[in-house]
Amino acid sequence: MKQNKEPWRIAVGLLSIAFIVWMWAEKDVAAIYTSMPPEDALPMIATTIAVSAAKVAVIAGAVYLGKWLMGKFRKK
After folding, report:
1. Model pLDDT, residue 3
2. Rounded distance between C-alpha atoms, residue 47 and residue 70, angstroms
3. Which one of 16, 32, 43, 64 is CB 3.0 to 4.6 Å from 56, fit for a cystine?
4. Is residue 2 domain-resident?
5. Is 44:36 a contact under the CB 8 Å cutoff?
6. Which domain does 25 fall in, by range?
């Protein structure tokens, strides 16, 4: 089986991680959650992680869709 590690996949992964770190740093998530009671902080942390994952999925999906569309139009 051929291992094909395309640079765009690596770039999407790195951009996704950078986006999450930037978003959390901008909102100062650590300061917000440490000032909350633990029973309130845990659901908020889970929600933040889920929303971040959804945003990354949308960004990655858009990149993959764009790559797929470019491949379709190039073949014609």
Report:
1. 61
2. 35
3. 16
4. no
5. yes
6. 7-75
